[in-house]
Specification:
Layout: H1 17-68, H2 74-78, E1 108-110, E2 121-124, E3 129-132
Parallel strand pairs: 1-2
Antiparallel strand pairs: 2-3
Amino acid sequence: MSGMKSSGSKLRRAFSLVELVVVVLIVGILAAVAAPKMFDTSTKARESATKASLSVVRNAIELYYSEHNVYPTAAQLVEVTKVSPDGMKNFIKGPFPVSSYGKKDASVLAGTAADSGTTGWVYDAATGSFWVNDTTNFSKW
């Protein structure tokens, strides 16, 4: 009787439809919970890059002020290739930072208020204030 199989020991070769549906539902729930956290990292990376650029430019403005007792003009600020006593090349190494918000370029609006969409940055030469040219909450970082 060794060649006979008992009826209670059937071999199972596949998953049932119910088991597959349960697994798909669990994977879907996990994806719904994890996806927002993964997509939020790109926003945080942009914010961090913008804050770092702001810090670099603000430090350069303050260094310029400490040597010249006047803040640079907006034109002097973006002219980082000029090697002269009034140029910014001594204070900002490399190209002028590009904004990650607003127009997303290295242009600077001279003024005291953000005008969303016209330039990447806003600079007030009277006070040395430098911020992102966008009218949302982070415009005054």
